[in-house]
Amino acid sequence: MIKKGPSQQSGVALLAAIVLMLAITLILTNIFYRHQIDVSQATMALHTDQALLIAMSGEGWAREILEEDSRNPQTNQSDHYGEIWAQAMPLLPVEGGTLTGCISDLQSRVNLNSFSNYNGGSLQAELNHVDNMGLAKTWLNLLDLLEIPASPARAATIIDWLDPDSTIVNSFGAEQPDYDGLQPSRVVANERISDTTELADIAGYRVQEVQLLLPWMAALPFSTPININTASEELLFAMGGNYATRFVDMIAENRPFSDIGQFHSELDTYLGFVNLSNTSANISKSSQIWKNLLSVNTEFFQLYLEVAIGEARIEVTSVLQRRQGVPTIVVARTMVMVPVALPEPEDLSEIERLFEKNEGQAQQSDEESNIVQPACLMMGI
Predict the structure, then answer these.
(1) Model-level pTM?
(2) CB atoms inside a 10 Å sphere around CB 124
(3) What is the DSSP secondary structure assignment for residue 184, as one 8-state letter?
């Protein structure tokens, strides 16, 4: 019988001790790792909550700015990009992070829901009239400028998408039977558009075309005119119709306009129009050509905020409605959590790219044109 010596017993004990220490180390490492994850998640949740609260404070700042502008007798007659609301919020340091943002004019764009004012007769009358400029003609001209195929169907299908009936507005329109044959099939909304990307669901519009059109369109709760003081140069050319070049030149030289009557009076003079007279009053010819299409005031604005605290970054896009005599309200709000780890270090955020672009173009823009650029320049967020 062979007996184990003391050295063999010591070796077994040492091995057992090593295995035990390894097991304890693995257990402690796992506990520490899980603890770190819990701490990281708790910190992230805390930073996210803080960022949300700060974003809400930014909304409050925007609402106060807009209401202050409407209360000021020197600025409440019109809205333009020379006013305080159009200036970007400076990069504000907050506890543990930063807040920045800007406000843009949503009525500087084509409101898709304004097509609800049309029926078959009014659409055809506008398209047949050489001079009269309405939303439908403006839209088709904008498509031409952006090199997107334009035809009466481009307006008719939007009208049919919005109207509550199931009868096509004209031979170019499209109702439910036309969508049943599409792949995938779609159900006609027969109500107001809630988001501009919904245009891609309408017959005849491709996703790529909608992406190209995003900076020039909005989807507001009801029909609105276009603010001539804030409309982009492309949209001005689209609205100018047969007078496009002189129309744009006159606006670039003279805006902002304090009221729509002043605008029509100066446009009549610039274009050499003779007023249409009757026994009681003079009627501006330009007000007949661009009837109900233009204004100098804005009711709907878009607020863009970016909040960064620790590893939490939130982008907030809000639609604000301001009406005289009542508090400014938030009509819609979109919040996006932006992962910090995904972008490359050299990538810039949307707001940083905006500021960098504005800094590079500001001097050239001031020298070449009197058209003041907004802080939120065609963001399409």
Answers:
(1) 0.79
(2) 16
(3) S
As a whole number, mean pLDDT of residues 316-323 equals 94
The CATH superfamily holding the domain 112-230 is: EpsJ-like (1.10.40.60)
HSE-CB of 301 using CA atoms within 13 angstroms? 31
* Domain locations along the chain: 41-108+298-368, 112-230
Distance between CA 7 and CA 117 in Å, rounded? 99
CA distance 364 to 10: 85
Asked if residues 219 and 111 have their Cβ atoms less than 8 Å apart, the reply is yes
Strand partners, 314: 307, 337
Q: Count of CB atoms within 10 A of residue 78's CB? A: 22
Task: Please state which CATH number belongs to domain 41-108+298-368.
Answer: 3.30.1300.30
Length reported for the chain: 381
Spatial CB neighbours of 196, under 8 Å, sequence gap ≥ 6: 112, 210, 213, 214, 217, 218, 219
pLDDT band, residue 369 (cuts 50/70/90): very low
Dihedral sign for Cα 109, 113, 118, 120, please: positive
Torsion, Cα of 209, 215, 221, 226 (10° steps): -110
Confidence of residue 351 (pLDDT cuts 50, 70, 90): low
Q: Is the dihedral of CA 77, 380, 231, 198 positive or negative?
A: negative
- Express as a percent the part of the chain with pLDDT over 70: 82
pLDDT top residue among 323 and 6: 323
